[in-house]
Amino acid sequence: MSQRDLIEKDFYKVLGVGKEASQSDIKKAYRKLARELHPDKNPGNAKAEQRFKEVSEAYDVLSDEKRRGEYDEARALFAGGGPRFGPGGAPSGGPGGVNVDLGDLFGRAGGVGGLGDLFGGLFGRAGGGSRGPRRGGDISADLTISFEDALRGLDAAVRLPDAAACDTCGGTGARPGTYPVTCPTCQGLGIVSQSQGGFALSSPCLDCGGKGSKVEMPCPDCGGTGRRERRQKIRIPAGVVSGQRLRVRGRGTPGDRGGPPGDLEVVVHVPPHPVFGRDGDNLTMTVPVTFPEAALGASVSIPTLDGSPVTVRIPPGTASGRRLRVRGRGVAKSNGSRGDLIVTVEVTVPQRLSAKAKSALEDYAAASPGDPRDHLRRLVEPA
C-alpha cells in the first residue's frame, strides 16, 4: 500500500461498512461485493473490474487486525495535519516550524523510530518509505463445477485477472529495454510536504501516485500495470459443498519489490442436480410409485450417480413420504467410506383413467372396509 492509500482511500467506505465494523461484518460485505463485481460475472465491464480490485484491496487491509490498526492510526495522524517529512521520510518540524519529539505520540523514545515502525508495517519494511518489499494482495475467485464433480473432486483451472507478473516486462510495467525511474518530484519518497500556516501537511505525490517511481514508457502488453491474467490450477476435494471457500497459500497477486505473494481464495458454486439432492454425506432423491406398488409392495429399479442402477424394495402398505435407505451409495468420505442414498417414496395419482381402470377402482372402493376418516370424527365428537 502506498502513502496515497492512507489519505485518499477510505477502505471502510469501499466495503460499505462503518469504522466500528466487526471482522464478521467486513467479511460478509466483501463476499457480497466480490460475488457481484467479479470479472467472470461482468465480462467486458471495466468499471466493475476496477471496483472489484478496490474491494479486494480494502479487504486485504481491513481483514488483518494488525494492518487495520496501522491503517486507522496512520489515517488519524494525517487527518490531524500530520508531521512534516524531510529527506528520508523523517519528521522535521511541527507547529510553527519547531522540531518536535514524537516519542510520546508513538510510544517510544526518539520519536522517529515510532513513526518509522508505523509506516514500516504498512509499507512492507521498517523505517517507513515506499520502496521496500511489499506483500502481494489476496485474490478472490469464483468457480462453478457440476454436481457430479463436487462429489468426485477434480483439478480445475481458475481464471485470475491481473494475478501474475507480465511476461513482457517482468512485472516492472515498463517497456522492454527500459526501467521505472525515481520520481523527480518526491525523490523516491512517494510523499511531498506543503506548509499551511504553522503546520506542515504531508500528502502522496501525485506525479507517481505515491509509489516513488514512474514508468515513462509503459509496457504495450500490460499498459504499465506489470500484471496479466492467468489461470491457476487447483485441486477441488471430493465432497465440496456449494459456497465453500478454498484457500491456496501463495497463489495470489505477486508481491512488489521482492515481497511474498498473497493468497488465493476460491468460492465454489455447485448448481442443483435435476434428480439428486444432498444432505451432508447422504444423497437424496424422490421416487414415484404407483398405488398398486405402494399397496401390494414391489421392487423398483432406480438410477445412481455412479451409473449402475440399484433395486429398492417397496414394502406392502408403504405410504407416500416414507423414506428408504440404500447404504453406501452416497457421497465419498475422506476415510474411504461413503454416505447413503435416501429414497423418498411418492405415491402418484393418475390424472386420467381408462374405463377399465375406473371400473376396477370402483370395485376396489366397494370392497374396501371402513372409512379411513372415522377416527377423526370420533376425536372431535363430544363424549
Describe the 3D structure.
With 383 residues, this protein is α+β, with helices and mostly antiparallel strands. Among the domains are: 135-166 and 223-271, Urease metallochaperone UreE, N-terminal domain (HSP40/DNAj peptide-binding domain, Sandwich), CATH 2.60.260.20; 277-378, Urease metallochaperone UreE, N-terminal domain (HSP40/DNAj peptide-binding domain, Sandwich), CATH 2.60.260.20. It has helices spanning 3-8, 11-15, 23-37, 46-62, 65-79, 103-106, 112-123, 147-152, 291-296, 355-367, 374-380; strands at 84-85, 91-93, 139-144, 154-165, 181-182, 191-196, 199-204, 213-214, 227-236, 245-248, 264-269, 277-279, 282-289, 298-302, 310-314, 323-326, 341-347. β14 (298-302) and β15 form a beta hairpin. It is elongated. The termini are far apart.
